[in-house]
Specification:
The chain is mainly beta. 0% of the residues lie in helices and 46% in strands.
């Protein structure tokens, strides 16, 4: 993922999982260097299409996608993102954090 801008709206944040997650309920976790962790459920999807974004390839049903809204990227600096996937109440999977920057 490339750098994003402070309070940028409509930009995709994608997290690659690398296995079929089509039956999961996805959550995007955003963690700024300074501030509180954000767990986003509304608007997070598991697309059924392949996407190539620069050097990254995302395969259908193997990544989550979210388009930023006003107030999501409310800190300029280093951030981390990861996916949390609920397959059932006892089967929850999380990816490792992926780093990105939000520019002022």
């Amino acid at each position: 993922m490339s750098n994003l801008n402070f309070d940028e709206v409509g930009q995709p944040i994608r997290v690659n999982v690398g296995s079929d997650i089509s039956l999961a309920s996805p959550t995007l976790i955003l963690l700024p260097e300074v501030g509180n962790k954000k767990e986003i459920v509304e608007g997070v999807s598991i697309p059924a299409v392949d996407v190539v974004d620069g050097n990254d390839t995302y395969l259908a049903n193997e990544y989550i996608e979210y388009y930023t809204k006003l107030g999501d990227l409310d800190y300029a600096g280093r951030w981390k993102s990861k996916a949390k996937l609920n397959f059932s109440t006892t089967d929850v999977m999380q990816t490792d954090y992926k780093k990105f920057r939000v520019l002022p």
